[in-house]
Amino acid sequence: MNIPGYRPYWSGKEIEYVADALNTGQISGDGYYTQRAAALLKESFDAGNVLMTTSGTHALEMAAILIGLRPGDEVIMPSFTFPSTACAVMLRGARPVFAEIREDTLNLDPDDLQRKISAQTRAVIPVHYAGIGCEMDKIMDLAARYKLYVIEDAAHAVNARFKGKYLGTWGHFGCYSFHGTKNYTCGEGGALLINLDDEQLLATAEEIRQKGTNRARFLRGDVQKYNWVNIGSSYTPSDILMAVLLAQLSEVERITLQRKAVWQYYFSRLKDYEEQGLFRMMHIPEGCEPNYHLFYVLFKQAAVRDQVMKELNSRGIAATLHFLPLHSSPMGRKLGYRPEDFKITARVGECLLRLPIYAGMTESELDYVVANFAEVIEGL
Ligand SMILES: *Cc1c(COP(=O)(O)O)cnc(C)c1O
To answer: pTM, whole model, 2 decimals?
Structure first.
């Protein structure tokens, strides 16, 4: 049996919506489907303003431009993240400053965040790993005390909550991803949530997103023609992709419930093996309502993780490692970091194993994964 690590879930409406977008001929940015997708996100998650983007990476880049990051500025983030989080900052000439994660959630440790704050710190980017929320209440308090912007990297965390409030709506900005590997997807896509109530900031965001023009105001009929008014780039997704996304967003509950069933199946079936002490499973802390983006186990030893991964892969199961810590990457070393700078992060990078999880995973697929996982563990 061959079991992929992830697989997009098609509701069936995608083709209908795409055909409709193609037929209307309105396929560039900010057409009907883009507006519908943005409105649906805003309403469902009680967000400030939502601007659809070409990717989660681009949402992060837009936020970095919007807060006016400059050379000399510092932005604190975990090292345990995807390179986009750091690249968005470096593209402005600013410096990513890494902080340690918590051992239990693999999310930014607020205590270490506080220790890393300097006179140059302008912002913090918490990353909600696996759809489990960072301690946003503590992070927002710290940000208020030190006058920092908070940009949530909520790429994993669309439709997940912390203390009842949707992730991506806690910070001043929230960045979503609809990449093919994420829960709700259009292949490549994202959204920037602007939760600050600031008309000028929103107008600027629209300009940056529309190649430095005031085209958004023109489309609303506020101005007669549009002109070059700011710096910017091309961050507007095609309406064809937003048609796919709208179909996905209308099935958010179904997709989430199916993922939840997979997650819970693993959690209950692997408990006995966890008690043998070789690994611990991911768990859901109090106050977190995840979107079941990932299921991972953390082994005590890197060699055991590698062996289990290899065995499962050879049996057709795409069990995979995840983020290679940024601080010990070739780029992180260029920034002056050494592998030993973040012990928890380094260990998690070496010891974490993700099991396949996707909506529509069948019982026989699940059984196959669990049976093989059990067999491999028993045979160690
Ligand atoms: C997927 C991901 C991104 C990038 O999103 P794209 O839509 O692929 O650009 C950024 N940060 C994290 C933590 C991610 O997992």
So the answer is: 0.98
